[in-house]
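Running this now, will post back.
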Amino acid sequence: MLRCLILFATAGVPVLLALAGCGATMPAPKPRITLTEVPEDIRACARNVVPAPKGKGRMSEADVYRTISALRGSEADKSGCLDRLMALHEADAARLALLLDGAL
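Update: finished.
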């Protein structure tokens, strides 16, 4: 952080002049690391839960099939959301690796 400065006067006004290559140089700026925000649709997907069946007794066969169908659909939706979230993470990790290696 040391710099060589020369003080001289021009037309009676003192002027400081920094000399290049004299003393220690300024450190390189630290890279700015930002991660991608999780999109709201992925957050909503993660919060979406298939409700528990209503009633206290046995479920009818039709209710069982409807519940299984809803659970399968929810599972497929969550798998798609997870795939997108993993892709965002992998892209961030790759960008961070390039940034830390000095390529960016």
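Strands lie at 5-10, 13-18. More later if anyone needs it.
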